[in-house]
Write a structure and sequence with these properties.
about 25% strand; alpha/beta; about 250 residues; binds adenosine-5'-diphosphate; 4-stranded antiparallel beta sheet; Rossmann fold; binds magnesium ion
Length: about 250
């Protein structure tokens, strides 16, 4: 989608004073209290915080699935708050990859068809759809399994189908909510490695909510969220340092 309002930004994702208050009867839940963050293209950022700290709310606001009470979400220099529902839908379909914890794979469709679907919705030609689908399944090491339905695949394989699907529209931004939560640590590492490579290669900005301590070896930054606020930004040690053999 061409979005040329003269807006330019070095950031793929930016939030300014992002605030979300849920009203439950006469109670107010302050899910987000002024979140400021920036992700550049090619940056892999983890969002950590205990349950209820606001991770899902933040991802939903950035993905345009929830409306902030105050503050802004700015994607490549454009504030999405002013967009119509139609424009948001098109944008999500064309430029954002979503990976939710409940993977949302369609059980009646094969791995191939699950990945291909978004391209059908985007009107991509049959030839290009085939090429992209096989490409994405190859990236996650699942091309051999493309004819299998989700229930014929392991949890880790289903997770990879969900990743392949999130990549199928060639997104500039990926938003993932606990995508490795249900995986054993070996599969979790494989999935994180796939993310890291694809993010670098395609200069995608990825924000991922997680509890997983494995992510420290893969991400560029960890944002620690508490009670709807970013408490601190952690820059993990580069992975190579772990390979140093302690002397003595
Ligand atoms: P996390 O993903 O970190 O567990 P959430 O973003 O789901 O946190 O929730 C943050 C806070 O907002 C919690 O107190 C939660 O109960 C509340 N909350 C989330 N969604 C809603 C909603 N739709 N209505 C009311 N309260 C909500
Ligand atoms: Mg959550």
């Amino acid at each position: 989608m061409a979005s040329n309002n003269g807006a330019q930004s070095r950031y793929a994702i930016e939030t300014v004073g992002l605030t979300r208050v849920y009203k439950l009867g006469d109670q107010e839940v302050h899910a987000l209290r002024g979140v400021n963050l920036q992700l550049e293209p090619g940056q892999f950022v983890a969002l950590k915080g205990r349950s209820g700290s606001g991770k899902t709310t933040l991802l939903n606001c950035i993905g345009g699935l929830d409306q902030p009470t105050a503050g802004k979400v700015i994607i490549f220099g454009e504030e999405i708050g002013g967009w119509s529902e139609a424009k948001l839908t098109t944008w999500r379909r064309q430029q954002v990859g979503f990976i939710f914890q409940s993977l949302g794979l369609l059980p009646a469709l094969s791995a191939y068809e699950n990945v291909e679907l978004i391209m059908r919705m985007n009107g991509v030609s049959a030839k290009e759809r085939y090429r992209m689908t096989v490409d994405c399944l190859n990236l996650v090491g699942l091309a051999k399994w493309m004819d299998h339905r989700p229930y014929e695949l392991s949890g880790g394989q289903q997770q990879r189908v969900a990743i392949a699907r999130a990549l199928a529209n060639n997104p500039k931004v990926i938003i993932a909510d606990e995508p490795t939560g249900d995986l054993d640590s070996k599969t979790g590492r494989e999935v994180l490695g796939i993310f890291r490579n694809i993010i670098r290669e395609r200069q995608i900005a990825m924000l991922m909510a997680t509890h997983d301590s494995l992510v420290n070896d893969y991400v560029d930054q960890i944002l620690h969220l508490q009670d709807g606020q970013i408490l601190r930004i952690e820059i993990p040690e580069p992975e190579e340092e772990e390979e140093l053999i302690p002397v003595g």
